[in-house]
Specification:
With 279 residues, this protein is α/β, with parallel strands linked by helices. The protein has helices at 13-23, 46-55, 79-83, 88-94, 99-111, 117-126, 134-143, 150-159, 172-182, 210-224, 241-246, 257-262, 275-278; strands at 2-6, 27-32, 35-39, 59-63, 74-77, 163-171, 186-195, 198-204, 231-235, 249-253, 265-267. The strands form 2 sheets. Strands 8-7-6-5-9-10-11 form a 7-stranded mixed beta sheet, with helices on both faces. The N and C termini lie close together (12 Å). InterPro entries: DUF4072, HAD-like_SerB, HAD-like_sf, HAD_sf, PSP.
């Protein structure tokens, strides 16, 4: 296995030496000033490597030797708190004075404490009833920000020939804008019902929950003529787990503990462009 170590700050030579020793690897190759690749790393040393990396705010990943980004055909991403830094529904709720109440439900759902995602979404959207739909545009313009490294990651994936899928338990208002802005190939999300310029508190059509996210990944792979094992899935919450389990490589991005434990790789500190250094 290769062991890829990444840092937000430049990696010092002291880190290089210590990590080669901890991983019982043969040598470290510099990827760039923020990352190294240690060859012949011993997977049995994961606990020691993890403890060191956590203490020094480093991200690590054991990766099969010889894997390349072009081995994959699709990168599938969650939206809220993955491709973007915010939870859109929480910010929408802020415009009707209910952010704390809605955010508490969102957080519990993402940690996996609320098992029925559909119920949690219906509860949250119902609280938005009567809100002027212009709040959606304000959230997009004033509060929505891309996660660090998002555009670089997407550019690198596209250059390697991968297609892009944004699949979200959030809302089509935002995924549609991001599709145009970022040149994404496929998107899927929930549709808020709007009548006379006001949110009705209802979601239209099938809710994009964990099962639908996984199915969307499979269907998109089928459209592209590839197996799900050639997909990369990135997410942060428990409703991403089934989608991530379908993929050949799963990335937990600043994720809840249940997601970090299940994913192939976790990025707790570096940006989404950390994907480009892995393979």
């Amino acid at each position: 296995m290769n062991l890829v170590i990444q840092s937000v700050a430049p990696l010092s030579a002291d880190h290089h030496k210590t990590l080669v020793a901890l991983a019982r690897g043969s040598h470290a190759a510099v990827i760039d000033e923020h990352a190294i690749r240690i060859a012949d790393a011993n997977l049995a040393q994961r606990a020691d490597v993890e403890a060191y990396c956590y203490a020094h705010r480093l991200d690590y990943a054991f990766v099969e030797t010889g894997r390349q980004l072009s081995d994959f055909g699709l990168v599938a991403m969650d939206m809220d708190s993955t491709l973007i830094t915010i939870e859109c529904i929480d910010e929408i709720a802020n415009f009707c004075g209910l952010k704390a109440e809605v955010a508490a439900i969102t957080e519990a759902a993402m940690r996996g404490e609320i098992k029925d995602f559909n119920e949690s979404l219906i509860r949250r959207v119902a609280l938005l009833k009567g809100l002027d739909a212009s709040a959606l545009e304000r959230v997009y313009e004033e509060r929505l920000r891309l996660s660090p490294g998002a555009e670089r990651m997407l550019a690198g994936a596209k250059q390697a020939g991968l297609k892009t899928l944004l699949v979200s338990g959030g809302f089509t208002f935002f995924t549609a804008k991001l599709k145009t802005r970022l040149g994404l190939d496929f998107t899927r999300a929930n549709t808020l019902e709007i009548i006379d310029g006001k949110l009705t508190g209802n979601v239209m059509g099938e809710i994009v929950n964990a099962e639908v996210k996984a199915r969307t990944l499979r269907e998109t792979c089928a459209t592209l003529g590839i197996e799900p094992s050639r997909a990369i899935a990135m997410g942060d919450g428990s409703n991403d787990l089934k989608m991530m389990a379908e993929a050949g490589l799963s990335v937990a991005f600043r994720a809840k503990p249940v997601v970090r434990e299940a994913a192939s790789v976790s990025f707790n500190f570096v940006g989404l462009d950390g994907l480009l250094r892995l393979v």
